[in-house]
Structure formats: C-alpha cells, structure tokens
Specification:
The complex is a heterodimer of chains A (385) and B (122). Chain A is α/β, with parallel strands linked by helices and 385 residues long. Chain A has 16 helices and twelve strands. Chain B has one domain: 2-Layer Sandwich (Nonspecific Lipid-transfer Protein, Chain A), CATH 3.30.1050. In chain B, a hairpin with a 5-residue loop joins strand 2 and strand 3. The radius of gyration of chain B is 14 Å and the shape is globular. The N and C termini of chain B lie far apart (34 Å). Classes of the chains: A alpha/beta (385), B alpha+beta (122).
Chain lengths: 385, 122
C-alpha cells in the first residue's frame, strides 16, 4: 500500500536540513557499484522492459555508481507501474575524477588529483574501479603535476547534463539528486599519499599548503562555480576523514590545512542557495564541532560502529545525520527482518526530533537486494512522526 | 588471482558491461555487429572490441607494438592515438589526423562505437 505523501521529496529533504520536522522521515541512497547492479538485475526486483521503456522516455541515467534508474525503481506504482513502493527521496551524483592523464613517471592512469587509477575485470566478469595509490610520490612529481594546470582544470561541458538529470529525477520520480565534487583532503592525499601528507605537514608545511592551494584554485573552486551555475538545491561533497576508530590525520593538521578549504566549499554552496551535506566515512566525531562552526547542514555515512550517533544527535542538533545504516555488516549478513528492526530502532533514536535521513552508509556493493528493499520499506513504515 | 582484464581493455569492458547488465545492449542495439581496434599508444595494449547480437567481447592485443601493424589485422575499423588526443574530442582528433599523430581507418564505424558506449545509459 502506498503511503500518502503530504510533501514532495524536495520539500521533505529541505525541511529536515532546515532543522524542521517533515511529514515523514526521508530515505537516502548514495548509489551502487557494478556488483550490486549485477545482483539487482538478477533478482526478482530487476528493471523490467516496461520499466526501462518509461525510464528511457524520462531520460533517467543508468550510469554506475549513481544508479538513478534503480533508485527510480523504488518509486510507488503511481509513479512507475512496476515500482517497488519503497520510495527513496535523496540520492547523489558527483562530477569530475574521470579525467585521466599520462605522466612520464608512471605507466598507470593518473586522475586529476594525482592518484593512480585502475580498472580491473576479474574472473567472474564484473568490472571494478580502484584507487591504486598515490602517483605524486616525490616533490618533483608534485611540481610536474602543477605544470599540467591546463589539463587539470575542469571543463564546463562536464557539468551541462547535471541540471537536466536532476530535474528529470525530481519531476518524474520525486527524487532529489544532490550534486558535488570530491573534497580537499581526498584530492590531496590520493595524489601525494598519507605518508607524504604527514611528513609535509610536520616538516614542510608551506609546500603542503602550496599544493592544497593549487588544487583548490585550479580544480575545486572552478568546479564548484560550474556546479553552482546549474543551481542545485543540495550540494554533497565527499571527503573521507576517518578510519574505523578516528581521524586519519592529526586533528591539528585537519584544522590547519583542510578545514579552511572545506569552509569555502560550504560558503560557495550556501551563497548559491543550496544546502551542504558532507559525505565522510569513518569515525569523525572529533571534528563535529568544526562542522557546526562552518555551517555544514548534514553529514553523511556515519557507520554506527565508528560513530556515537546518539551523542551526535544530542550534542549537535544543527546537523542532519544522513546514512547511519551499516552497509558492510548488517546489510550484507543479516535478514530483511533484522534490517527492518534496525531501521525502526534508528528512526526512534535518531529521528524523533527530525534531523535524520537514513540510508546505507556507503555505495551498495555486495548486499542482497532484498535487504535494500526491506530497508526502504522500513523507512516508509516506521518513519512517520 | 590475476585479473581477466586490466588497463584500457578493462575500461572498454566496463563501458559495455553497463549496457549489458541492464539488458540495454541487446534492447537498444540488437542487430549491431562491429569489430574494431582501439590503440591508445601511451597505454598499451591495443584492444579489439567485438559486438554482435547484444553480446560483446574484449580482446587485448599484446602483440601489437606499433600503429602500423594495425593495417595487417582483420577488422571493420581502427584508431591509434595518444590519450591526450583521444580525450580532446573530434577537433583534436581531426587535427591529429592532419598532423599524422592519429592513424585511423573507417571513422564511421568508430563513431558507431562511441554512439553505443554513450547511448542508452543517459
């Protein structure tokens, strides 16, 4: 049975990000990798020929890992005849990172952030895209990278389809697409590596600052400006600061080198009239006060094993918690009934005063599709205030 | 366990896999038959791409070391160029042909590959 909706997905999502209580708890999906698409398309929930005919007519994107076509499949039958009636309200699409470069100091592909990029097809026939390590291992490499300014600069044409894709998803399937780019930490560390980041931060902070400034001026700021020209309602940028038990880098270094750039991201989004959500994996509780200070509206991922979510809810009511449903253990190994119970409990603890948009904590990968359907059905069932 | 494919052959594989996993290669291009070779000269090996009746096959051609060798291979079309030129779009490719940095046979069939890779997934 379809739930009667009193708000559109956009109204609902903006209402939560504004700190108010909407008609029901909205659901979120970051996207899904090749493995998940394979599993989904070989499950009873797979897109049918009729679904694809309508999705094609509505010009919905099938691209991986953002899987808008699969997200649209969760719509109620009133929107898509074969819909799963477990509507998702918010999803994601990033831009950039696919521009591959050739440098003389490596035989591998190098991405715009200076990281090595690998595409692999294993025996089961499913492709995988991997970050394979930093390419800019020496200061000389970084300086050669700086000389490629023209190749690294974003191209406006890459941003031209975003508005159309967002509008189609919102108007035809009532799903909000957040758009973004990757953040200043990831872009720096993917290029130079963690060891160099730590070494430069202690011994050559001016050089590290110069590199971070270079990437911001040449890649990030112009990308954000192109993005804001498309007038997104919600900007979500990815920058993984945590590992399972805390921050990957010294908090003093995060505050000195990364926080000012992240604050610029937030300001550019807000100046353009958009809300700002940060996707950041791992245990990031130590910098939640900083997120409040720079005006971040929502933080996404928040794996429960790495984050004390009840404390965040209590101490930082300004920030909407997005994600929080463990993608790598519970959604992979437990039954749909356990998934439903877990969602019910999460909504009760984290969503009773608003400020909560549940969804899997990362891209879908090896989860059984029935658990994902159970997750979004549970949000509908238990997400009423 | 060594991978089945990596590098440029894996990039082409992943592009066609998206269409196949959604059933769109068969749905959108049921009668398409092409057999072409793409050689990104600074990222070997050359890659043979075969599409036939909604199925595809990617074959790395490790033995090809020079674009001239493509002339001896049976195929509907080929292109050999550095990554920078292929990424630069039609303008850069046309200039590359003029400057003899791009070796190409049957532009039409290569464009049909581009249509397939870009088509159907929006």
């Amino acid at each position: 049975m379809s739930v009667t909706e009193d708000m559109t997905a956009l109204e609902r999502v903006l209402c939560v990000l504004d700190g108010k209580i909407p008609d029901r708890v909205p659901g979120f999906c970051l996207g899904g990798d090749y493995d998940f698409v394979y599993k989904f398309m070989n499950s009873p929930y797979a897109l049918t020929e009729d679904d694809k005919t309508q999705l094609d007519k509505d010009k919905i994107s099938y691209s991986i890992p953002f899987i808008h076509a699969i997200i649209a499949k969760f719509a109620p039958p009133s929107i898509l005849a074969g819909g799963l009636d477990a509507k998702i309200d918010l999803c994601w699409k990033t831009i950039g990172g696919t521009n591959l470069l050739k440098f003389d100091f490596t035989d591998e592909f190098v991405t715009a952030n200076g990281g090595l990029f690998k595409v692999v097809v294993r025996d089961e026939g499913i492709p995988h895209y991997w970050y394979a390590g930093p390419a800019l291992l020496q200061k000389e490499h970084v300086k050669i990278y700086w000389e490629r300014e023209k190749d690294l600069a974003p191209k406006k044409a890459e941003f031209k389809n975003l508005k159309k894709q967002r509008t189609n998803m919102r108007k035809k399937y009532d799903v909000v697409v957040s758009n973004g780019i990757s953040g200043p930490f990831e872009n720096c560390v993917f290029g130079i590596g963690m060891a160099n980041f730590a070494r430069f931060a202690r011994k050559e902070p001016e050089f590290l600052q110069e590199h971070i400034d270079f990437q911001y001026d040449v890649i990030h700021e112009p990308s954000l400006k192109f993005l804001m020209d498309t007038k997104p309602e919600v900007v979500m940028c990815g920058d993984d600061y945590g590992y399972n038990k805390g921050l990957q880098i010294n908090v003093k270094h995060w505050r000195k080198f990364i926080k000012p750039k992240l604050a610029n991201y937030v300001k550019i989004a807000h100046d353009g009239g958009a809300k700002f959500i940060l996707h950041s994996c791992g245990g990031i509780g130590e910098i939640f006060p900083d997120f409040v200070e720079i005006g971040i509206d929502g933080v996404e991922s928040l794996k429960p094993i790495s984050n004390d979510l009840a404390i965040y809810r209590e101490k930082y009511p300004e920030i909407t918690l997005v994600g929080t449903i463990d993608d790598s253990e519970m959604l992979v190994h437990e039954s749909p009934e356990i998934v439903k119970k877990s969602v019910k409990e999460s909504v009760k603890v984290l969503g009773k005063k608003g400020g909560y948009i549940p969804g899997p904590t990362n891209f879908l990968l090896d989860q059984p599709p029935e658990n994902i359907v159970a997750l979004y059905k549970a949000i509908q069932e238990f997400g009423k205030y | 366990m060594s991978p089945l494919l990596e590098g440029i052959p894996a990039v082409f594989y992943s592009g066609l896999y998206v269409l196949q996993v959604y059933g769109k290669l068969e749905q959108t291009f049921p009668d398409k038959r092409i057999n072409i070779i793409v050689f990104i000269t600074d990222f070997p090996p050359a890659t043979r791409i075969k599409i036939d009746g909604g199925q595809f096959e990617i074959i790395p051609l490790e033995e090809i070391k020079d674009p001239q060798e493509l002339e001896n291979l049976e195929c509907d079309g080929y292109v050999a160029a550095p990554l920078e030129i292929l990424y630069g779009g039609v303008g850069a490719i046309m200039k590359g042909i003029k400057d003899k940095k791009v070796k190409i046979k049957n532009m039409k069939v290569l464009l049909s590959l581009a249509t397939i890779l870009g088509g159907g997934i929006n």
